[in-house]
Design a protein that fits this description.
The chain is α/β, with parallel strands linked by helices and about 400 residues long. The protein has 9 helices and 17 strands. The protein has helices at about 5-10, 10-15, 195-215, 230-240, 275-285, 295-305, 305-330, 365-375, 375-390; strands at about 30-40, 45-50, 60-65, 65-70, 75, 90-100, 100-110, 120-125, 130-135, 145-150, 160, 175-180, 220, 245-250, 265, 340-345, 355-360. It has a 6-stranded antiparallel beta sheet, with no helix packed on it. Strands 13-12-14-17-15-16 form a 6-stranded mixed beta sheet, sandwiched between helices. Strands 5-1-2-9-8 form a 5-stranded mixed beta sheet, with no helix packed on it. The longest helix is centred in the C-terminal third of the chain and has 24 residues, at about 305-330. The model is unreliable at about 1-25, about 145-170 and about 290-295 (pLDDT under 50). The structure holds zinc ion.
């Protein structure tokens, strides 16, 4: 069974555990083990918590009925007894001191699913707790998985760097929600030749779905016809589908007919530049038509998401967006002048699902309007986006 980010967020006890988020500078001061405990989380997943005096620097490896957490520069403590909860997949935990590395080896009762990035967190000290490395996982069919992950020795809280060497690739399909912007009574922007944004992005969305389905993903479209959807409904849809990635497709318009090229946006409360803010205002204006329901959803999400988790989602989104920009550049798709990835408070991106909003090009530019209408160019865009999804690192 797969544990989703959404389920994680719904766990009250978890939210209560999460403390402040002040970034800490990585240091190599000797670390020491404080406690080890296990627990059962919502959805039946097993949680392993390793508490240390300082921020842990770790690698993780797991395979046949075993999960090993390697804590670098850490000293074990013989009198630390693992508090084993009932009903978890962990039968036994042992400490092995290997030079300066402390290996926490958990013997599992069965095979587990691949552990994804969002299933590992480092929690800051709070109350009676010191730093906690929290790993959630579930039983699965992980035959032959040999995965290892290394944390970056930076201030990043949740981000991990992967060195995955699977002997057998896991067949678990990741869930991607593709959102064709606008629709129905909201045409989006309209080119001089009459091309409507809602039509272009729906066509690209359908092609992208087809491609990603072929690539083995489980994909959903927020809309598959010319209907109007509120922005909150789109974000909520991604939540409900437990999506791993959310891609919102749009096309741009600018008073300057010379302006051209794609641009990619991730969510931030503060826009990275004035242009990004203006764009977010105009994209968000779609909801001015019918704003009911979104405010509450948005509030719920903000309450559910701790600052730490918001940052984790932001980091994953940024990673995807950068990869997507690279992929578009590689495909020689014209990029709008300026940074390839910008940030602005887009309502549609306000969820617990990492993702990005892609402005595919400018309908206000005569040449690009022509291109955006053409099958050939749409396919080129789809290929580039699909490649960015394929190179996005879903697992730890
Ligand atoms: Zn739009």
């Amino acid at each position: 069974m797969k544990i989703t980010r959404r389920q994680l967020l719904k766990t009250v006890s978890f939210s209560a555990l999460v403390a402040g988020i002040a970034p800490r500078v990585a240091f190599s001061a000797p670390n020491s083990l404080r406690s080890i405990r296990t627990g059962v989380q919502a959805g039946g997943k097993t949680r392993l918590v390793v508490e240390t005096a300082n921020r842990p620097s770790y690698t993780l490896s797991y395979g046949d009925k075993q999960l090993i957490v390697n804590l670098s520069n850490t000293t074990g403590k013989a009198d630390v007894q693992t508090k084993l909860a009932n009903g978890t997949l962990i039968k036994r935990v042992t400490q092995i001191q290997d030079g300066t590395t402390l290996k926490i080896s958990a013997t599992l009762s069965g095979l587990i699913d691949a552990i994804e990035k969002n299933q590992i967190m480092i929690l800051e000290p709070n109350g009676d707790n010191d730093y906690r490395l929290v790993i959630d996982f579930s039983s699965g069919t992980g035959r032959g998985i040999t995965t290892s992950a290394t944390t970056t020795a930076t201030a990043k809280t949740v981000k991990t760097e992967t060195t995955t060497k699977p002997t057998t690739k896991t067949t678990k399909s990741h869930i991607i929600v593709i959102d064709a912007g606008h629709g129905g009574k909201d045409p989006g922007c309209i080119g001089k030749g009459g091309t409507q944004e809602k039509t272009v992005v729906l066509s690209v969305a359908k092609k992208l779905k087809k491609k990603l389905d072929t690539d083995g993903y489980k994909t959903y479209l927020t809309r598959s016809s010319d209907v109007y959807l509120k922005l909150g409904e789109r974000a909520e849809f991604a939540e409900k589908k437990h999506a791993d990635l959310f891609i919102s497709l749009h096309a741009n318009a600018n008073p300057s007919r010379d302006m051209k090229g794609f641009s990619i946006y991730t969510l931030s409360e503060k826009a990275s530049d004035e242009e990004a803010q203006k764009l977010a205002d105009s994209e968000n204006a779609a909801d001015k038509i019918d704003v009911d329901g979104f405010e509450q959803f948005s509030k719920d999400i903000r309450v559910a998401l701790s600052a730490l988790q918001q940052r984790a989602v932001a980091e994953l989104s940024e990673e995807y967006a950068n990869g997507c920009a690279k992929s578009m550049n590689k495909a020689s798709i014209e990029q709008q002048k300026g940074p390839s990835v910008r940030h602005a408070p887009f309502a549609v991106l306000r969820s617990t699902v990492p993702g990005a909003l892609i402005e595919l090009g400018h309908l206000s530019n005569k040449n690009e309007e022509k291109l955006l209408k053409s099958d050939a160019h749409q396919n080129k865009l789809v290929d580039a986006i699909a490649k960015s999804v394929n190179s996005y690192d879903f697992d730890v």
